[in-house]
Protein backbone atom coordinates (compact mmCIF):
# COMPACT_ATOMS: atom_id res chain seq x y z
CA UNK A 1 0.00 0.00 0.00
CA UNK A 2 1.32 3.48 -0.94
CA UNK A 3 2.32 5.71 1.95
CA UNK A 4 -0.09 8.58 2.53
CA UNK A 5 1.57 11.95 3.21
CA UNK A 6 -0.76 14.91 3.59
CA UNK A 7 -0.22 18.62 3.04
CA UNK A 8 -1.37 20.96 5.81
CA UNK A 9 -1.77 24.73 5.70
CA UNK A 10 -1.62 25.64 9.40
CA UNK A 11 -3.22 29.08 9.18
CA UNK A 12 -3.77 31.90 11.66
CA UNK A 13 -7.53 31.94 11.08
CA UNK A 14 -8.25 28.61 9.38
CA UNK A 15 -6.37 25.36 8.77
CA UNK A 16 -6.75 23.12 5.71
CA UNK A 17 -5.56 19.58 4.89
CA UNK A 18 -5.13 18.17 1.37
CA UNK A 19 -3.82 15.09 -0.41
CA UNK A 20 -2.95 14.01 -3.95
CA UNK A 21 -5.17 11.15 -5.14
CA UNK A 22 -4.67 9.61 -8.58
CA UNK A 23 -2.47 12.54 -9.54
CA UNK A 24 -5.03 15.19 -8.52
CA UNK A 25 -4.57 17.41 -5.43
CA UNK A 26 -7.77 17.71 -3.39
CA UNK A 27 -8.84 19.29 -0.10
CA UNK A 28 -10.24 16.88 2.51
CA UNK A 29 -13.43 18.25 4.15
CA UNK A 30 -13.92 17.86 7.91
CA UNK A 31 -16.80 15.99 9.59
CA UNK A 32 -19.13 18.94 9.11
CA UNK A 33 -18.37 19.06 5.38
CA UNK A 34 -16.34 22.30 5.70
CA UNK A 35 -13.18 22.50 3.59
CA UNK A 36 -11.34 24.61 6.17
CA UNK A 37 -11.33 24.35 9.99
CA UNK A 38 -11.05 27.37 12.33
CA UNK A 39 -7.63 27.48 14.02
CA UNK A 40 -9.24 27.69 17.46
CA UNK A 41 -8.87 25.62 20.64
CA UNK A 42 -10.98 25.84 23.80
CA UNK A 43 -11.68 24.01 27.04
CA UNK A 44 -15.31 23.61 28.11
CA UNK A 45 -16.39 23.87 31.77
CA UNK A 46 -16.18 20.07 32.02
CA UNK A 47 -12.58 20.18 30.78
CA UNK A 48 -13.40 18.77 27.34
CA UNK A 49 -11.06 19.90 24.57
CA UNK A 50 -12.82 21.66 21.69
CA UNK A 51 -11.09 22.25 18.36
CA UNK A 52 -12.18 24.02 15.17
CA UNK A 53 -15.87 24.74 14.68
CA UNK A 54 -16.76 23.39 18.14
CA UNK A 55 -14.40 25.95 19.70
CA UNK A 56 -15.66 28.77 17.48
CA UNK A 57 -19.32 28.12 18.32
CA UNK A 58 -18.77 28.79 22.02
CA UNK A 59 -16.23 31.63 21.77
CA UNK A 60 -18.77 34.35 22.62
CA UNK A 61 -19.75 32.70 25.90
CA UNK A 62 -16.25 31.47 26.79
CA UNK A 63 -13.79 34.03 25.36
CA UNK A 64 -11.14 33.82 28.09
CA UNK A 65 -10.78 30.04 27.59
CA UNK A 66 -10.71 30.05 23.78
CA UNK A 67 -7.39 30.44 21.97
CA UNK A 68 -7.33 31.88 18.45
CA UNK A 69 -4.49 33.19 16.22
CA UNK A 70 -1.87 31.16 18.15
CA UNK A 71 0.26 31.09 14.99
CA UNK A 72 1.16 34.75 15.59
CA UNK A 73 2.91 33.71 18.81
CA UNK A 74 4.56 30.45 17.78
CA UNK A 75 8.34 30.38 18.24
CA UNK A 76 8.38 33.91 19.72
CA UNK A 77 9.97 35.11 22.93
CA UNK A 78 7.93 36.42 25.87
CA UNK A 79 9.54 39.87 25.59
CA UNK A 80 8.74 40.20 21.86
CA UNK A 81 6.56 43.00 20.49
CA UNK A 82 4.10 40.38 19.22
CA UNK A 83 3.64 38.91 22.70
CA UNK A 84 2.99 42.33 24.27
CA UNK A 85 0.54 43.33 21.52
CA UNK A 86 -1.51 40.13 21.74
CA UNK A 87 -1.54 40.29 25.55
CA UNK A 88 -3.13 43.75 25.37
CA UNK A 89 -5.81 42.88 22.82
CA UNK A 90 -6.88 39.25 23.29
CA UNK A 91 -9.35 37.93 25.91
CA UNK A 92 -7.25 34.90 26.89
CA UNK A 93 -4.31 34.99 29.30
CA UNK A 94 -0.69 35.01 28.13
CA UNK A 95 2.11 34.14 30.55
CA UNK A 96 5.90 33.81 30.45
CA UNK A 97 7.18 30.26 30.04
CA UNK A 98 10.13 28.72 31.90
CA UNK A 99 12.47 29.27 28.93
CA UNK A 100 11.51 32.87 28.13
CA UNK A 101 8.84 31.63 25.70
CA UNK A 102 5.13 32.46 25.54
CA UNK A 103 2.60 30.24 27.30
CA UNK A 104 -1.21 30.37 27.08
CA UNK A 105 -3.55 29.80 30.00
CA UNK A 106 -6.90 28.05 29.56
CA UNK A 107 -8.85 27.63 32.80
CA UNK A 108 -6.30 26.30 35.32
CA UNK A 109 -3.98 24.76 32.70
CA UNK A 110 -0.99 26.37 30.98
CA UNK A 111 -0.02 25.34 27.45
CA UNK A 112 2.92 26.15 25.18
CA UNK A 113 2.06 27.61 21.77
CA UNK A 114 3.31 24.47 19.90
CA UNK A 115 0.88 22.41 22.04
CA UNK A 116 -2.08 24.56 20.94
CA UNK A 117 -0.95 24.28 17.31
CA UNK A 118 -0.56 20.51 17.82
CA UNK A 119 -4.23 20.21 18.84
CA UNK A 120 -5.18 21.77 15.48
CA UNK A 121 -2.74 19.56 13.53
CA UNK A 122 -4.09 16.51 15.39
CA UNK A 123 -7.57 17.45 14.16
CA UNK A 124 -6.22 17.58 10.57
CA UNK A 125 -4.61 14.15 11.07
CA UNK A 126 -7.96 12.70 12.20
CA UNK A 127 -9.80 14.33 9.28
CA UNK A 128 -7.31 12.77 6.84
CA UNK A 129 -7.47 9.36 8.54
CA UNK A 130 -11.29 9.35 8.44
CA UNK A 131 -11.13 10.09 4.70
CA UNK A 132 -8.38 7.57 3.86
CA UNK A 133 -9.36 4.84 6.32
CA UNK A 134 -5.71 4.28 7.31
CA UNK A 135 -3.31 5.92 9.79
CA UNK A 136 -1.55 9.10 8.59
CA UNK A 137 1.88 9.63 10.13
CA UNK A 138 3.69 12.05 7.81
CA UNK A 139 2.93 15.56 6.58
CA UNK A 140 4.31 18.55 4.74
CA UNK A 141 3.37 21.66 6.71
CA UNK A 142 3.50 25.22 5.39
CA UNK A 143 4.76 28.31 7.21
CA UNK A 144 4.98 32.01 6.30
CA UNK A 145 8.03 32.58 4.11
CA UNK A 146 9.40 35.11 6.57
CA UNK A 147 9.31 32.77 9.58
CA UNK A 148 12.70 32.48 11.28
CA UNK A 149 14.33 29.19 12.38
CA UNK A 150 12.74 29.24 15.85
CA UNK A 151 9.26 29.66 14.38
CA UNK A 152 9.89 26.85 11.88
CA UNK A 153 11.22 24.55 14.61
CA UNK A 154 8.20 25.32 16.80
CA UNK A 155 5.93 24.32 13.89
CA UNK A 156 7.84 21.03 13.47
CA UNK A 157 7.53 20.41 17.22
CA UNK A 158 3.77 20.98 16.98
CA UNK A 159 3.63 18.29 14.30
CA UNK A 160 5.64 15.91 16.46
CA UNK A 161 3.33 16.42 19.45
CA UNK A 162 0.35 15.78 17.14
CA UNK A 163 1.81 12.41 16.10
CA UNK A 164 2.97 13.62 12.68
CA UNK A 165 6.47 13.44 11.27
CA UNK A 166 6.86 16.75 9.43
CA UNK A 167 9.00 15.60 6.52
CA UNK A 168 9.30 19.09 5.04
CA UNK A 169 8.43 22.64 6.02
CA UNK A 170 7.74 24.78 2.96
CA UNK A 171 6.88 28.44 2.55
CA UNK A 172 3.24 29.35 1.98
CA UNK A 173 3.79 31.47 -1.18
CA UNK A 174 5.94 28.67 -2.64
CA UNK A 175 3.18 26.13 -1.92
CA UNK A 176 0.66 28.43 -3.61
CA UNK A 177 2.92 28.67 -6.68
CA UNK A 178 3.17 24.85 -6.81
CA UNK A 179 -0.62 24.58 -6.90
CA UNK A 180 -0.87 27.39 -9.46
CA UNK A 181 1.62 25.80 -11.86
CA UNK A 182 1.01 22.09 -11.20
CA UNK A 183 0.56 20.01 -14.34
CA UNK A 184 0.43 23.05 -16.66
CA UNK A 185 3.91 23.01 -18.25
CA UNK A 186 4.17 26.76 -17.77
CA UNK A 187 7.18 28.98 -18.30
CA UNK A 188 6.39 32.11 -16.34
CA UNK A 189 7.69 34.56 -13.80
CA UNK A 190 5.13 35.13 -11.05
CA UNK A 191 4.66 37.09 -7.85
CA UNK A 192 2.71 35.45 -5.03
CA UNK A 193 1.06 38.03 -2.73
CA UNK A 194 -0.06 36.24 0.43
CA UNK A 195 -2.05 38.27 2.97
CA UNK A 196 -3.64 35.94 5.50
CA UNK A 197 -5.19 36.20 8.94
CA UNK A 198 -1.97 36.95 10.79
CA UNK A 199 0.96 37.19 8.39
CA UNK A 200 2.02 38.71 5.07
CA UNK A 201 4.49 37.27 2.54
CA UNK A 202 5.45 38.00 -1.02
CA UNK A 203 7.62 35.75 -3.19
CA UNK A 204 8.94 36.11 -6.72
CA UNK A 205 9.29 32.78 -8.55
CA UNK A 206 10.42 31.52 -11.92
CA UNK A 207 8.38 28.52 -13.07
CA UNK A 208 9.49 26.40 -16.01
CA UNK A 209 8.99 22.77 -17.04
CA UNK A 210 8.36 21.42 -13.54
CA UNK A 211 11.05 23.56 -11.86
CA UNK A 212 9.81 26.08 -9.28
CA UNK A 213 12.62 28.45 -8.37
CA UNK A 214 12.12 31.07 -5.67
CA UNK A 215 14.14 34.17 -6.57
CA UNK A 216 13.27 36.37 -3.64
CA UNK A 217 10.95 36.42 -0.63
CA UNK A 218 10.07 38.85 2.17
CA UNK A 219 7.24 39.55 4.55
CA UNK A 220 5.94 40.56 7.95
CA UNK A 221 5.01 37.80 10.39
CA UNK A 222 2.75 40.13 12.38
CA UNK A 223 0.63 41.76 9.68
CA UNK A 224 -2.67 40.25 8.55
CA UNK A 225 -6.44 40.16 8.92
CA UNK A 226 -6.16 40.34 12.73
CA UNK A 227 -4.66 43.85 12.35
CA UNK A 228 -7.51 44.91 10.06
CA UNK A 229 -10.10 43.60 12.54
CA UNK A 230 -8.34 45.44 15.38
CA UNK A 231 -8.68 48.73 13.48
CA UNK A 232 -12.43 48.16 13.05
CA UNK A 233 -12.74 47.20 16.73
CA UNK A 234 -10.93 50.37 17.83
CA UNK A 235 -13.22 52.47 15.66
CA UNK A 236 -16.34 50.82 17.16
CA UNK A 237 -15.01 51.12 20.74
CA UNK A 238 -14.25 54.84 20.28
CA UNK A 239 -17.60 55.52 18.58
CA UNK A 240 -19.46 53.68 21.34
CA UNK A 241 -17.55 55.60 24.03
CA UNK A 242 -18.34 58.94 22.35
CA UNK A 243 -22.05 58.07 22.18
CA UNK A 244 -22.46 56.49 25.63
CA UNK A 245 -19.45 57.40 27.76
CA UNK A 246 -18.83 53.66 28.30
CA UNK A 247 -15.34 52.16 27.76
CA UNK A 248 -15.75 48.54 26.61
CA UNK A 249 -12.07 47.59 26.87
CA UNK A 250 -12.45 45.93 30.29
CA UNK A 251 -15.54 43.90 29.30
CA UNK A 252 -14.15 40.61 27.93
CA UNK A 253 -17.40 39.28 26.52
CA UNK A 254 -18.21 42.62 24.86
CA UNK A 255 -14.70 42.70 23.34
CA UNK A 256 -15.14 39.19 21.91
CA UNK A 257 -18.53 40.13 20.45
CA UNK A 258 -16.93 43.23 18.94
CA UNK A 259 -14.10 41.14 17.46
CA UNK A 260 -16.58 38.73 15.87
CA UNK A 261 -18.67 41.62 14.54
CA UNK A 262 -15.58 43.44 13.20
CA UNK A 263 -14.42 40.31 11.33
CA UNK A 264 -17.90 39.70 9.91
CA UNK A 265 -18.29 43.34 8.80
CA UNK A 266 -14.84 43.31 7.19
CA UNK A 267 -15.72 40.12 5.27
CA UNK A 268 -19.15 41.48 4.25
CA UNK A 269 -17.55 44.67 2.91
CA UNK A 270 -15.57 42.61 0.40
CA UNK A 271 -18.79 42.29 -1.61
CA UNK A 272 -21.15 44.95 -0.17
CA UNK A 273 -20.85 48.76 -0.02
CA UNK A 274 -22.17 48.92 3.56
CA UNK A 275 -22.52 46.63 6.58
CA UNK A 276 -24.43 47.20 9.82
CA UNK A 277 -22.71 46.21 13.05
CA UNK A 278 -25.70 45.31 15.24
CA UNK A 279 -24.90 44.18 18.80
CA UNK A 280 -27.91 44.36 21.13
CA UNK A 281 -27.31 44.14 24.91
CA UNK A 282 -23.58 44.73 24.37
CA UNK A 283 -22.97 46.13 27.87
CA UNK A 284 -24.83 46.41 31.16
CA UNK A 285 -23.68 49.07 33.65
CA UNK A 286 -23.39 48.37 37.42
CA UNK A 287 -26.68 50.26 37.85
CA UNK A 288 -28.41 47.88 35.45
CA UNK A 289 -28.60 50.21 32.45
CA UNK A 290 -28.38 48.27 29.16
CA UNK A 291 -26.44 49.58 26.14
CA UNK A 292 -26.84 48.45 22.53
CA UNK A 293 -24.57 49.12 19.55
CA UNK A 294 -25.84 49.66 16.04
CA UNK A 295 -23.30 51.25 13.76
CA UNK A 296 -23.15 51.37 9.94
CA UNK A 297 -19.73 50.78 8.39
CA UNK A 298 -19.04 51.51 4.73
CA UNK A 299 -16.43 50.07 2.42
CA UNK A 300 -14.92 53.55 2.17
CA UNK A 301 -14.63 53.82 5.98
CA UNK A 302 -12.94 50.42 6.19
CA UNK A 303 -10.46 51.46 3.51
CA UNK A 304 -9.71 54.67 5.40
CA UNK A 305 -9.09 52.72 8.63
CA UNK A 306 -6.73 50.18 7.04
CA UNK A 307 -5.15 51.81 3.99
CA UNK A 308 -1.76 52.22 5.71
CA UNK A 309 -1.64 48.45 6.45
CA UNK A 310 -2.07 47.69 2.75
CA UNK A 311 0.63 50.26 1.91
CA UNK A 312 3.01 48.39 4.25
CA UNK A 313 2.53 45.27 2.12
CA UNK A 314 3.16 47.24 -1.09
CA UNK A 315 6.46 48.59 0.30
CA UNK A 316 7.53 45.00 1.10
CA UNK A 317 6.62 44.01 -2.50
CA UNK A 318 8.82 46.85 -3.77
CA UNK A 319 11.80 45.66 -1.69
CA UNK A 320 11.29 42.05 -2.80
CA UNK A 321 11.30 42.96 -6.49
CA UNK A 322 14.48 45.02 -5.99
CA UNK A 323 16.13 42.12 -4.13
CA UNK A 324 15.15 39.74 -6.94
CA UNK A 325 16.49 42.11 -9.60
CA UNK A 326 13.15 41.76 -11.39
CA UNK A 327 11.23 44.59 -13.00
CA UNK A 328 7.47 44.39 -12.48
CA UNK A 329 7.06 44.46 -16.28
CA UNK A 330 8.86 41.09 -16.41
CA UNK A 331 6.12 39.40 -14.36
CA UNK A 332 3.59 37.26 -16.21
CA UNK A 333 1.18 36.79 -13.31
CA UNK A 334 0.34 37.83 -9.75
CA UNK A 335 -1.28 35.15 -7.60
CA UNK A 336 -3.38 36.28 -4.62
CA UNK A 337 -3.35 34.03 -1.55
CA UNK A 338 -5.06 34.39 1.84
CA UNK A 339 -8.56 35.51 2.80
CA UNK A 340 -7.59 39.19 3.10
CA UNK A 341 -6.93 39.36 -0.66
CA UNK A 342 -10.71 39.35 -1.17
CA UNK A 343 -10.76 42.96 0.04
CA UNK A 344 -11.36 45.22 -3.02
CA UNK A 345 -8.74 47.80 -1.98
CA UNK A 346 -6.09 45.05 -1.66
CA UNK A 347 -6.91 43.83 -5.17
CA UNK A 348 -6.84 47.39 -6.59
CA UNK A 349 -3.50 48.30 -4.98
CA UNK A 350 -1.88 45.03 -6.04
CA UNK A 351 -3.12 45.55 -9.63
CA UNK A 352 -1.86 49.17 -9.60
CA UNK A 353 1.54 48.29 -8.16
CA UNK A 354 2.30 45.32 -10.41
CA UNK A 355 0.48 46.88 -13.39
CA UNK A 356 -1.22 43.54 -14.02
CA UNK A 357 -4.63 42.14 -13.07
CA UNK A 358 -4.15 39.45 -10.40
CA UNK A 359 -4.88 35.83 -11.30
CA UNK A 360 -8.36 34.73 -10.17
CA UNK A 361 -7.86 31.04 -10.99
CA UNK A 362 -6.95 29.83 -7.48
CA UNK A 363 -8.96 29.59 -4.25
CA UNK A 364 -7.06 31.83 -1.78
CA UNK A 365 -8.19 29.71 1.21
CA UNK A 366 -7.19 26.31 -0.22
CA UNK A 367 -4.30 26.87 -2.63
CA UNK A 368 -1.55 26.65 0.04
CA UNK A 369 -2.77 23.28 1.37
CA UNK A 370 -3.04 21.96 -2.20
CA UNK A 371 0.56 23.05 -2.87
CA UNK A 372 1.72 21.34 0.32
CA UNK A 373 0.00 18.12 -0.82
CA UNK A 374 1.72 18.38 -4.22
CA UNK A 375 5.11 18.73 -2.49
CA UNK A 376 4.24 15.79 -0.19
CA UNK A 377 3.43 13.58 -3.19
CA UNK A 378 6.67 14.61 -4.91
CA UNK A 379 8.72 13.67 -1.84
CA UNK A 380 7.33 10.12 -1.61
CA UNK A 381 6.96 9.41 -5.34
CA UNK A 382 10.28 9.41 -7.19
CA UNK A 383 8.47 9.51 -10.54
CA UNK A 384 7.07 12.96 -9.79
CA UNK A 385 8.72 15.38 -12.22
CA UNK A 386 8.89 18.37 -9.88
CA UNK A 387 11.87 20.32 -8.54
CA UNK A 388 11.48 23.00 -5.88
CA UNK A 389 14.34 25.45 -5.31
CA UNK A 390 13.61 27.58 -2.26
CA UNK A 391 15.60 30.31 -0.53
CA UNK A 392 16.61 31.20 3.00
CA UNK A 393 14.40 34.14 4.07
CA UNK A 394 16.91 35.65 6.52
CA UNK A 395 20.66 36.34 6.42
CA UNK A 396 22.94 34.12 8.53
CA UNK A 397 26.24 35.10 10.09
CA UNK A 398 28.21 35.64 13.28
CA UNK A 399 28.93 38.45 15.73
CA UNK A 400 32.29 40.16 15.21
CA UNK A 401 34.28 42.66 17.27
CA UNK A 402 32.32 45.79 18.15
CA UNK A 403 29.04 43.89 18.39
CA UNK A 404 28.45 43.96 14.65
CA UNK A 405 26.79 41.28 12.48
CA UNK A 406 28.92 39.75 9.72
CA UNK A 407 26.79 37.98 7.10
CA UNK A 408 28.08 34.75 5.61
CA UNK A 409 24.88 33.76 3.80
CA UNK A 410 22.67 36.55 2.46
CA UNK A 411 18.90 36.36 2.58
CA UNK A 412 17.25 34.96 -0.59
CA UNK A 413 20.18 32.61 -1.24
CA UNK A 414 18.97 29.37 -2.86
CA UNK A 415 19.23 26.37 -0.53
CA UNK A 416 21.01 24.03 -0.04
CA UNK A 417 24.07 26.27 0.15
CA UNK A 418 27.47 26.64 1.81
CA UNK A 419 29.65 29.68 2.52
CA UNK A 420 32.80 30.43 4.54
CA UNK A 421 34.99 33.32 5.66
CA UNK A 422 38.42 33.56 7.32
CA UNK A 423 38.60 35.68 10.49
CA UNK A 424 41.63 36.55 12.62
CA UNK A 425 42.07 36.87 16.38
CA UNK A 426 41.32 40.32 17.84
CA UNK A 427 43.47 40.18 21.01
CA UNK A 428 47.09 39.34 21.70
CA UNK A 429 47.63 35.76 22.96
CA UNK A 430 43.99 34.88 22.34
CA UNK A 431 43.62 31.09 22.79
CA UNK A 432 39.89 30.66 22.05
CA UNK A 433 37.07 32.23 20.05
CA UNK A 434 33.39 32.25 20.89
CA UNK A 435 31.18 31.89 17.81
CA UNK A 436 27.69 33.42 18.13
CA UNK A 437 25.46 32.18 15.27
CA UNK A 438 22.86 34.80 14.32
CA UNK A 439 19.96 35.22 11.91
CA UNK A 440 18.51 38.53 10.77
CA UNK A 441 19.09 41.71 8.79
CA UNK A 442 20.31 44.26 11.36
CA UNK A 443 23.92 45.46 11.28
CA UNK A 444 23.90 45.20 15.10
CA UNK A 445 24.32 41.63 16.34
CA UNK A 446 22.13 42.17 19.41
CA UNK A 447 19.11 43.02 17.22
CA UNK A 448 19.23 39.69 15.40
CA UNK A 449 18.02 36.25 16.48
CA UNK A 450 20.61 34.13 18.34
CA UNK A 451 20.47 30.59 16.93
CA UNK A 452 23.36 29.03 18.86
CA UNK A 453 26.89 29.45 20.16
CA UNK A 454 30.07 27.40 20.63
CA UNK A 455 33.76 27.85 21.49
CA UNK A 456 36.85 26.90 19.45
CA UNK A 457 39.73 26.59 21.94
CA UNK A 458 43.41 25.60 21.82
CA UNK A 459 44.54 28.43 19.52
CA UNK A 460 48.27 29.27 19.43
CA UNK A 461 49.29 32.27 21.53
CA UNK A 462 50.28 35.01 19.11
CA UNK A 463 49.88 38.74 18.47
CA UNK A 464 46.36 39.66 17.37
CA UNK A 465 45.59 39.18 13.70
CA UNK A 466 48.14 36.38 13.23
CA UNK A 467 45.93 33.34 14.00
CA UNK A 468 43.38 32.59 11.29
CA UNK A 469 40.02 30.90 11.93
CA UNK A 470 37.77 29.80 9.07
CA UNK A 471 34.04 29.86 9.83
CA UNK A 472 31.81 27.87 7.46
CA UNK A 473 28.01 27.88 7.29
CA UNK A 474 25.93 25.29 5.46
CA UNK A 475 22.14 25.03 5.07
CA UNK A 476 20.46 21.79 3.99
CA UNK A 477 17.39 21.56 1.76
CA UNK A 478 15.33 21.25 4.95
CA UNK A 479 16.77 24.54 6.21
CA UNK A 480 18.97 22.93 8.89
CA UNK A 481 21.96 25.14 9.64
CA UNK A 482 25.42 23.72 10.45
CA UNK A 483 28.35 25.90 11.48
CA UNK A 484 32.03 24.93 11.72
CA UNK A 485 35.08 26.88 12.93
CA UNK A 486 38.59 25.66 12.01
CA UNK A 487 42.02 26.82 13.17
CA UNK A 488 43.79 26.96 9.78
CA UNK A 489 47.22 26.47 11.37
CA UNK A 490 46.52 23.29 13.36
CA UNK A 491 43.40 21.99 11.58
CA UNK A 492 41.60 21.83 14.94
CA UNK A 493 37.86 22.10 14.21
CA UNK A 494 34.71 22.60 16.25
CA UNK A 495 31.26 22.43 14.72
CA UNK A 496 27.58 22.44 15.71
CA UNK A 497 24.30 21.72 14.05
CA UNK A 498 22.17 24.70 14.98
CA UNK A 499 18.95 23.46 16.52
CA UNK A 500 16.49 26.30 16.79
CA UNK A 501 14.30 26.26 19.88
CA UNK A 502 10.54 26.33 20.12
CA UNK A 503 10.68 27.10 23.84
CA UNK A 504 10.30 23.42 24.74
CA UNK A 505 13.05 21.12 25.99
CA UNK A 506 13.46 17.59 24.61
CA UNK A 507 12.10 16.13 27.87
CA UNK A 508 9.03 18.40 27.68
CA UNK A 509 8.48 17.37 24.07
CA UNK A 510 8.66 13.66 24.90
CA UNK A 511 6.17 14.12 27.73
CA UNK A 512 3.78 16.07 25.45
CA UNK A 513 4.03 13.37 22.76
CA UNK A 514 3.15 10.77 25.42
CA UNK A 515 0.17 12.86 26.61
CA UNK A 516 -0.99 13.33 23.02
CA UNK A 517 -0.87 9.57 22.37
CA UNK A 518 -2.86 8.93 25.58
CA UNK A 519 -5.43 11.54 24.49
CA UNK A 520 -5.82 9.86 21.10
CA UNK A 521 -6.35 6.44 22.72
CA UNK A 522 -8.97 7.96 25.03
CA UNK A 523 -10.63 9.83 22.15
CA UNK A 524 -10.78 6.73 19.94
CA UNK A 525 -12.25 4.71 22.83
CA UNK A 526 -14.85 7.45 23.32
CA UNK A 527 -15.68 7.47 19.60
CA UNK A 528 -15.97 3.66 19.61
CA UNK A 529 -18.30 3.83 22.62
CA UNK A 530 -20.44 6.42 20.83
CA UNK A 531 -20.54 4.27 17.67
CA UNK A 532 -21.62 1.21 19.67
CA UNK A 533 -24.14 3.27 21.66
CA UNK A 534 -25.79 4.49 18.45
CA UNK A 535 -25.86 0.96 17.02
CA UNK A 536 -27.41 -0.40 20.25
CA UNK A 537 -30.07 2.30 20.38
CA UNK A 538 -30.96 1.69 16.73
CA UNK A 539 -31.29 -2.08 17.29
CA UNK A 540 -33.34 -1.57 20.50
CA UNK A 541 -35.70 0.73 18.56
CA UNK A 542 -36.04 -1.96 15.85
CA UNK A 543 -36.86 -4.64 18.47
CA UNK A 544 -39.51 -2.46 20.09
CA UNK A 545 -41.03 -1.65 16.72
CA UNK A 546 -41.23 -5.33 15.75
CA UNK A 547 -42.25 -6.62 19.20
CA UNK A 548 -46.07 -6.24 18.79
CA UNK A 549 -46.02 -8.30 15.56
CA UNK A 550 -43.79 -10.97 17.14
CA UNK A 551 -45.98 -11.18 20.27
CA UNK A 552 -49.05 -11.63 18.10
CA UNK A 553 -47.35 -14.38 16.08
CA UNK A 554 -45.46 -16.25 18.83
CA UNK A 555 -46.98 -15.66 22.29
CA UNK A 556 -49.36 -18.62 21.87
CA UNK A 557 -46.53 -21.16 22.30
CA UNK A 558 -44.13 -21.81 25.17
CA UNK A 559 -41.16 -21.56 22.76
CA UNK A 560 -42.45 -18.21 21.48
CA UNK A 561 -42.96 -16.83 25.00
CA UNK A 562 -39.39 -17.92 25.96
CA UNK A 563 -37.97 -16.25 22.84
CA UNK A 564 -39.80 -12.98 23.59
CA UNK A 565 -38.66 -13.07 27.24
CA UNK A 566 -35.05 -13.61 26.14
CA UNK A 567 -35.32 -10.70 23.71
CA UNK A 568 -36.70 -8.43 26.45
CA UNK A 569 -33.84 -9.52 28.75
CA UNK A 570 -31.28 -8.67 26.05
CA UNK A 571 -32.84 -5.20 25.69
CA UNK A 572 -32.77 -4.61 29.48
CA UNK A 573 -29.13 -5.71 29.64
CA UNK A 574 -28.23 -3.39 26.76
CA UNK A 575 -29.98 -0.46 28.43
CA UNK A 576 -28.02 -1.13 31.63
CA UNK A 577 -24.73 -1.22 29.71
CA UNK A 578 -25.68 1.99 27.90
CA UNK A 579 -26.27 3.67 31.27
CA UNK A 580 -22.85 2.46 32.51
CA UNK A 581 -21.15 3.42 29.21
CA UNK A 582 -19.43 0.02 29.15
CA UNK A 583 -17.95 -0.19 25.63
CA UNK A 584 -16.58 -3.74 25.96
CA UNK A 585 -19.85 -5.17 27.26
CA UNK A 586 -21.79 -3.28 24.57
CA UNK A 587 -19.69 -5.03 21.93
CA UNK A 588 -20.93 -8.45 23.11
CA UNK A 589 -24.51 -7.20 23.56
CA UNK A 590 -24.56 -5.83 20.02
CA UNK A 591 -24.29 -9.37 18.69
CA UNK A 592 -27.25 -10.52 20.85
CA UNK A 593 -29.32 -7.51 19.77
CA UNK A 594 -28.45 -8.10 16.12
CA UNK A 595 -29.49 -11.81 16.33
CA UNK A 596 -32.76 -10.79 18.05
CA UNK A 597 -33.56 -8.21 15.35
CA UNK A 598 -32.83 -10.78 12.62
CA UNK A 599 -35.15 -13.33 14.31
CA UNK A 600 -37.91 -10.72 14.82
CA UNK A 601 -37.68 -9.59 11.21
CA UNK A 602 -37.87 -13.19 10.03
CA UNK A 603 -41.01 -13.78 12.15
CA UNK A 604 -42.60 -10.54 10.93
CA UNK A 605 -41.79 -11.40 7.33
CA UNK A 606 -43.36 -14.91 7.61
CA UNK A 607 -46.43 -13.40 9.30
CA UNK A 608 -46.77 -10.89 6.46
CA UNK A 609 -46.48 -13.67 3.84
CA UNK A 610 -49.11 -15.75 5.65
CA UNK A 611 -51.48 -12.79 5.77
CA UNK A 612 -51.09 -12.23 2.01
CA UNK A 613 -51.95 -15.88 1.26
Automatic annotation (TrEMBL):
GO MF annotations in UniProt: ATP binding; ATP-dependent protein folding chaperone
Species of the source: Nannocystis pusilla
Name assigned to this protein: Chaperone protein DnaK
Keywords assigned: ATP-binding, Chaperone, Coiled coil, Nucleotide-binding, Phosphoprotein, Stress response
Family, similarity comment: Belongs to the heat shock protein 70 family.
CDD domains in the record: ASKHA_NBD_HSP70_DnaK-like
One Pfam short name: HSP70
Coiled coil: 248-275, 526-584
NCBIfam families: PRK00290.1
